[in-house]
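Hi there,

I know you've been waiting on this one. I reran it after we fixed the sequence typo, so this is the corrected version. Both the input and the resulting structure follow.
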Amino acid sequence: MKTHLKRISFLIAVGVSSILFSQKRTEDFTISLPTQKADKSYYKTITVIDRRIDTTSVGIIQQGAFNAKAKVIPTSSLPDQFQHILNSVNNENTENGSLVLYLKQLYFAEVTKAFTEFGYCYFQGFLFAKNEDGTYSLLDKTDTVVDHRSMDVTKEILRKGSEMLTQFIVKNVPRKADTTVKYTFDQIKQFDDTDKQSISLYNSPQLKDGVYNDYLSLKNQQPQKEISNVKFYGNMPKIVRIYEMVDGKEQEIKKDDIYAIIYKGDPYIYLPIENLFNKAEKRDNDYYFTGKLRSGGPNVGNLSIGVFFGAVGVLFTSNPAYPFEQKIDYLNGAFIPIREIQSKKY
């Protein structure tokens, strides 16, 4: 599951690149309603703050014998559909509370390998409950992907995705939020920025030099090793070798299993496809970097970038690598492609 979560974020921004191809086909999507009433519910209304990169659809599926790409379009607005879930699960004893869903990602995708289709649905968001004093407290959050494989996955992945959304609401209606931390509505309208205020990577005036084996250590600014020196790739902002001091001598550090390094206060993200570290820059409270992505066939259990390009119909006849501007997903450390870089100087 964690592997899917870290790699599935590619899908969202590349999905936004549905702009890269003309899409006329559509597939309807309606969130299924719960079949049973809740024994207890504190909430009667729900507001949705839609912060998805692409709000025109909820993903791409394949239709017909030739797997034509089709946008998944909600049959009614997502705020209305989430309210329908509440209406359906509530009974006459429901209290008059309010929920707010900060929706970061909701995306379906399908790819085909050999004679098998793979379907995915990614759901990322925060659920808040309104307090009596008009503030809001976090009730739950999700960063989850469900998948399905079969000869024809469309019906099943839409069903599984729908059930995931319904269950997220249903499991929370009988719960009250911990009110230790409270937010204003303005704070939760821009909750990505609000949430980053508690993350060292985003609010530290000076990043700590060193080696970070995973995103969690980078996020918390807890390096695993010190760096004594580095070797740059010519005059480019790329590092090809890193060194540490061992018994008074400089020794090269193996790059395998390293997520990133900080050198002289600057972050460098490791990309195995290039076998080097690319410099990241903080912009608009996010970290952006440029690095190559490779197209290719999907590898189930270790989802490759080819899945995401395939999912939106960006097809390559060979297996070259393409430079993309990318940014770090602050929740899970995944790399989200923003746009292809056309410069020949890369």
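Quick highlight: The longest strand covers residues 97-113.

Best,
R. S.
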